[in-house]
Design goal:
Layout: H1 2-26, E1 34-39, H2 45-58, E2 65-70, H3 74-87, E3 91-94, H4 99-111, E4 115-119, E5 130-134, H5 136-150, E6 155-161, H6 167-183, E7 187-194, H7 199-209, E8 218-221, H8 224-237, E9 244-249, H9 252-259, E10 265-270, H10 275-287, E11 295-298, E12 301-303, H11 308-311
Parallel strand pairs: 1-2, 1-3, 3-4, 4-5, 5-11, 6-7, 6-8, 8-9, 9-10
Antiparallel strand pairs: 10-12
């Protein structure tokens, strides 16, 4: 009899414990917040470095679930964003390959309630949570002043753009052309091409320009890698009239040429892929409810042989 009482007592003591323990196990843990990162194709040094920076940055925040992908082309990024939209991420970082074409889907993601951080390349809308970019307009303006001074206010230039008509291209172009017209009216852009953001496009654009223009004083481009392709075209054509060429970006090969005081490739208007850290930090800040600025513009610098040592560690 005493055994039965003892067994009953043990059962009575254990039942509340097992209910409490079972309730603890069954109670849903807080959902891990998810952040998607939709990047442009990693088809040049800037975007390759950007991916490495972002991978390093997200590793600092394992408490979030990260999905980081590079598109292969514009259609692939459109499809990627459609998938990301259906996933209903808590936040998303996007480098749009073409801010015009991708604005509608990015707006939809924003209106669906996902915190949307646009990185580097603008969209044609104010419907986003935050925007982090380099100073593309200012970079174009600074380069116009550099070129104008180097040409002593007179000359003819060829101009290689970057995916003509996209927001990033228009910012650089408008900064350059408005400053040139206002401060150096005797310098004319006599030819334009699209160097995109790679050597092949720079080679192709410059090869197409050269036969139609027997005298060009300087070449201005929107991208350091396009510069490399343009230089090859100029060398292949045996042109001696072109005094110098300028770029935009901060490619290590460009900075190394500045270190050697290269007489032809003389300047790059630069900001760097380290802004990827800023975008990751911004996403985390937003999800933690910490106040943040909607727009962050990172200064660009004209890098030359005279100041390249100051920026060499930022080259990519």
């Amino acid at each position: 009899m005493r055994k039965l009482v003892l067994i009953a007592l043990i059962i009575m003591l254990l039942v509340p414990l097992s209910v409490f323990a079972g309730g603890g196990r069954d109670r849903a843990a807080p959902a891990q917040q998810r952040i998607g990162v939709a990047l442009s194709p990693a088809n040049n040094a800037w975007h390759i470095r950007m991916r490495a920076v972002i991978d390093e940055a997200v590793a600092r925040y394992p408490e979030y679930h990260w999905t980081v992908r590079n598109a292969t082309n514009l259609a692939d990024q459109q499809a990627m964003l459609e998938v990301f939209r259906n996933e209903r991420f808590d936040a998303m970082i996007v480098i749009p390959m073409d801010g015009r074409a991708l604005s509608p889907i990015i707006e939809q993601i924003f209106f669906d309630g996902t915190h949307t951080i646009i990185l580097n390349r603008a969209i044609v809308s104010q419907n986003y949570t935050a925007f982090i970019t380099g100073d593309n307009f200012g970079g174009g303006a600074n380069m116009a002043r550099f070129v104008g001074q180097r040409l002593n206010g007179r000359g003819q230039i060829a101009y290689l753009r970057s995916m003509t008509g996209t927001p990033i291209d228009m910012d650089r172009y408008n900064g350059f052309t408005s400053t040139l017209a206002r401060e150096f009216p005797d310098i004319r852009i006599i030819a334009q091409g699209d160097g995109e953001f790679n050597r092949e496009a720079g080679l192709r654009a410059m090869t197409n320009i050269l036969p139609g223009f027997p005298h060009i004083d300087a070449v201005v481009t929107h991208d350091d890698e396009a510069v490399m392709g343009a230089i090859t075209a100029i060398q292949n054509a045996g042109r001696r009239d072109i005094q110098f060429i300028t770029g935009f970006g901060g490619v290590r090969a460009a900075y190394e040429m500045f270190q050697r005081n290269d007489p032809f490739f003389v300047a790059s208007s630069s900001y760097w892929p380290t802004m990827g850290f800023d975008a990751v930090e911004m996403a985390v800040r937003i999800l933690r409810g910490i106040p943040f600025p909607k727009d962050t513009v990172i200064s660009s610098h004209v890098v030359t042989a005279q100041n390249v040592a100051q920026f060499m560690n930022d080259a990519y």
